[in-house]
Amino acid sequence: MGFWDILVGVLFLVISLLLILIVLLQKGKGGGLGAAFGGAGSSAFGTRTGDVFTWITIVLTGLFLLLAVGTNLMLRPSPGLVAKPTFQPPPGPISEKVKVTLACATKGAGIRYTTDGQDPDENSAEYTNQPLNVEPGSVIKVIGVREKWESSPVVTAEYPLADANAPAVPMPGTGPTIPTGPTTKPATPAVPAGPTTAPATN
């Protein structure tokens, strides 16, 4: 709730109390409040135009109606909560400068961001649909904003420097490779053959 919202609410309360008080202080000749709007035998713009209480009642009634309309417009509840902004590419290790785009699913919402580690607010830098040049090691914090809506929670995206010596991460669904043995059987040693001719007989 802003300053002007609080001011209008306080004025509306004060005018309401003054209107009640001035009506109670008036004499009952013309029927109290009825004299200001035309009661029995009297009129607000006739014989009682010089009555100070009558004019005060008219002015306070007009202010009451104006503030009632203004209070209804300014103090109505927020339409909703702005969706969290998203990043493309998503946060993760990077080895070189990349271009990061931001998006918000709430129609008509804007995006505010910071790159110094501070939480953003409605006065932070505005994303203008141009990709951000993100260096390795950068941290981006963003919120979605829209007038009369509640801002989204702060979303933090970290882009640390990728480790070139880190082992490759296996793809989902694959496991470590199991070493297999030799695909051929060892050769069977040869059996020496005997003499192929029978010994001579005497």
Summary keywords:
202 residues; alpha+beta; Immunoglobulin-like; 4-stranded antiparallel β-sheet; 3-stranded antiparallel β-sheet; 3 helices; rod-shaped
Account of the protein in words:
- It is a single chain.
- With 202 residues, the chain is an alpha+beta fold.
- It has 2 domains: 3-74; 86-159, Immunoglobulin-like (Sandwich), CATH 2.60.40.
- It is 25% helix and 16% strand.
- The chain has 3 helices and 7 strands.
- Strands 4-3-6-7 form a 4-stranded antiparallel beta sheet, with no helix packed on it.
- It is rod-shaped.
- The protein starts with a helix and ends in a 43-residue tail after the last strand.
Low-confidence stretches: 29-33, 39-50, 168-175
Distance between the termini: 133 Å
Task: Outline the biggest β-sheet.
Answer: 4 strands, antiparallel
**What sequence of helices (H) and strands (E) makes up the elements?**
HHHEEEEEEE
Shape: rod-shaped
Largest sheet strand order: 4-3-6-7
Q: Number of DSSP strands?
A: 7
- Give the name of the CATH architecture of the largest domain: Sandwich
Number of individual domains: 2
SS content category: alpha+beta
Mean pLDDT: 76
CATH class of the largest domain: Mainly Beta
Number of helices: 3
Strand content: 15-25%
Q: What percent of the residues sit in helical stretches (DSSP H or I)?
A: 10-25%
CATH topology of the largest domain: Immunoglobulin-like
CA radius of gyration: 43 Å
